[in-house]
UniProtKB/TrEMBL annotation:
Region (Disordered) residue spans: 48-70
Entries under Pfam families matching the protein: Peptidase_M1 (PF01433)
Domain of life according to the entry: Bacteria
Segment forming the signal sequence: none
Compositionally biased spans, kind Low complexity: 48-60
Ranges for domain Peptidase M1 membrane alanine aminopeptidase: 345-541
This protein's name: Peptidase M1 membrane alanine aminopeptidase domain-containing protein
Amino acid sequence: MSPRYVKRLLLFTLTAVLLGLSIQQGFGRAWQSQYTYALAPAAKAATDSAPKSAKPPASSQPDNVAPKPQALSKRITEYHINVSLRDDIRYLDGQQTVTWTNPGKKTVSELYFHLYPNAFMSDKTTFMKESGGKLRSDKATEASQGYMKLLTLETTEGESLLPRLHYVQPDDNNPNDFTLAKLKLPEPVAPGKSVTLEMGFEVKLPEVFARMGYSGNYVMAGQWFPKLAVYETAGTRGRTTEGWNTHQYHGNSEFYSDFGIYSVRIQVPESYTVAATGFQTKAVEKKGNRAFYQFYADDVHDFAWAASPDFIYYEDTLSGPGIPGVRIKLYLDPAHEELKDRYMHAAKSALSKYGQWYGEYPYSTLSVVVPPKGANGSGGMEYPTLVTAFAAETDNPGYSLERTVVHEVGHQYWYGMVASNEFEEAWLDEGFTSYAEDKVMASEYGIEANLPLEASYMTAPAPLKQPSWAYPSNNVYAENVYMRAKLVLIGIEKQVGEKMMQKIMRTYFQKYKFKHPTTTDFQRVVEQVTKQKWANYFDQYVYGNQMADVSVESITVHPVEQDGARMYESVVSLQRNGGYNGTVPVVLKFKDGTIVPKSWDPAEAQVQYKIVHSSPLEWVAVDPQHTNVLDNKHINDYMKADLSEVTRTRWSLGASNVIQGLLGLLGW
């Protein structure tokens, strides 16, 4: 999900900096092959053509596909779903046949289902209690109540299993939370064997809130069907014994599920256009006043769709290194039709760079949905092969348009294919995606991240490897799993260099795509690629809550007599106040213009420099070029020497940036 909710605090921080202040603190295994869109030989790559409007709209036609021979994932689950959006677009009526194959070595006697829409049943659910009815800048309305009701749950022989279904709350024992259900099976499932269930369900959609719902005549169906939890085998994510990974829907948490196959038939009012995960296998059927869409996807772990009668559709194709052929589809709100080239350029640029840097994008489609004004609750979100941009709230969205698309496309890698557990280790998705997003924005748009400012935003550093609901607030969650996590990755890059860091990221992706890795797996890759131990770094910044703040603690200057000449003895004390992150440059500036550089190894928490010089010391700056990206308190990086102890003040980040500029002029 896009970290747009940090903007207000970042703006506040920037204002404070400019003021000189500081902020601290049963269908069988159908369609077994993976498909790839068959491109014409003259398909254009990256950004060399404008998007083309298809006439008739391509969304009404099946996607042209060609088979690839092998499965990319273990395909633990298989869903065949029929869903109908009622004419009032407030309800979904669904039937699904789901098959689960036991991937472990033990017999399994129960299944667990996530019923995410039940998070909106009342203000007493775990999600609503933890979020307070807010997610980012999105607020629940009186119409934001929703639910998922299981109407039928049967074996393929017709035996009802509903009496065997019980809601469970393993995280907080909240009796009013119904987002996770346990089903005791009539017959256990042996290793390698499968069970197939048939389910009927009804979903009351909330007015758009927390990623899903309706707004006007627009619908975003995310987390809309009964979804199996992940059964983790021994060795997966460090497990010593196999078992289910089960969590409720929390205020901060996103999602975690297993890879599989989806065949989904979507029925909507006749005037509606549907965007969905995967590719369209049939032309749209029209019967009476209804339209029927058929989509298919494999080697994905979720399925989402959006629908509106107002979507303006454009498409283009992309191929190149790491991109064997992708059909990029835009579903634009009319208010942003004139921005179609920008959306397409952002999607192409992001996909091209990620494919080049990390590895192949194996899917045949990528859809970008632009919600209408008022539906931002569903904006800035990722699903397999489908992302949502910010809502069309303004005619001039600035670079937030590109940044959001670039970020969400990045999720196709770290959320979509690597498939981290977002319940328990959200930083492996959001932090990695934020890091990759910055790389694309710099490469394609010349927009460099203001890392010192972003570091100063870190007011409540917390361990990155912890459940999302363990963070005390959404702001603290966002600070850490988006911002601080990104800075931790950049901190590694600062030590090993960009080329080595790209090798680390690519190796991690290639080794763990479709495998649900954990933090330990990433640390192991860092150590294998660099041939160095990183336990100290990870203990401080990933498993711990450290930042790498360093400060100028004191300066004393007094005249001395030396060889009959008047000299000045300057004593400077520096202090490390947090974690250790490599050597730190120090600059001492004397009144005669002399600059004396030092290199301080903060493995020692304190250091004192004593220098005798013909001119008094004027000022001291620690890390004036902000190479220590994990230093979040730049206000204490600078001190003037000629002020009294009572009136001496440290300059803010803004002042230290001025010093950095002066040093640049001196060629330091």
